[in-house]
Amino acid sequence: MKNRYTAAVLAFFLGGLGVHKFYLGKWTGIFYLIFCWTYVPSIIALIECILYLVNGEEDFNEKYNNVVVSSRSHNDNYVSNQPIIPQTSSLTDTSDTGVVCPECGHINEAGSNFCESCGKKL
């Protein structure tokens, strides 16, 4: 398993030669070797060194170690601005007021099949 601190140290000291890319198993390190005389790979490697240190361990493991750290979806922190309406039997499906979404509480038009706010099937 590859370590992000080792990759950062290799990028800092030997990044102009692409050693950190070879350590991470990327074939793009060959371009660093080809263009090492231009000092452009050294500048890119310095930026990559900073990114390895700034990004978290989870991101590094997902990208370079093929490890899924968490099964959380990206919508776990979603906060709806719709008011929460308590579900009662009179609000679930009436032709006068519409259909209340059981997921977000949004009142949809009568006869709707999907919620207009969250898209859940009604």
Detailed description of the structure:
37% of the residues lie in helices and 6% in strands. The longest helix has 15 residues, at 40-54. It is rod-shaped, with a radius of gyration of 26 Å. The protein has helices at residues 4-14, 19-23, 29-34, 40-54, 57-64, and strands at residues 93-94, 98-100, 107-108. By secondary structure, the chain is mostly helical. α1 (4-14) runs antiparallel to α4 (40-54).
Describe what is shown at a glance.
The chain is built from five helices and three strands; from the N terminus they run αααααβββ. With 122 residues, it is mostly helical.
Task: Summarize the helices and strands and which ones pair or pack.
Elements: H1 4-14, H2 19-23, H3 29-34, H4 40-54, H5 57-64, E1 93-94, E2 98-100, E3 107-108
Antiparallel strand pairs: 1-2, 2-3
Helix pairs in contact: 1-4
Helix-strand string: HHHHHEEE
On the 0 to 100 scale, the average pLDDT is: 82
Which percent range fits the helix content? 25-40%
Structural classification: mainly alpha
The neighbouring-strand order within the major sheet is 1-2-3
Q: Uncertain regions: pLDDT < 50 for 5+ in a row?
A: 90-94
Strand content: 5-15%
Shape: rod-shaped
DSSP summary, beta strand count: 3
Number of helices: 5
* Amino-to-carboxy terminus distance: 46 Å
Radius of gyration: 26 Å
Describe the sheet with the most strands.
3 strands, antiparallel
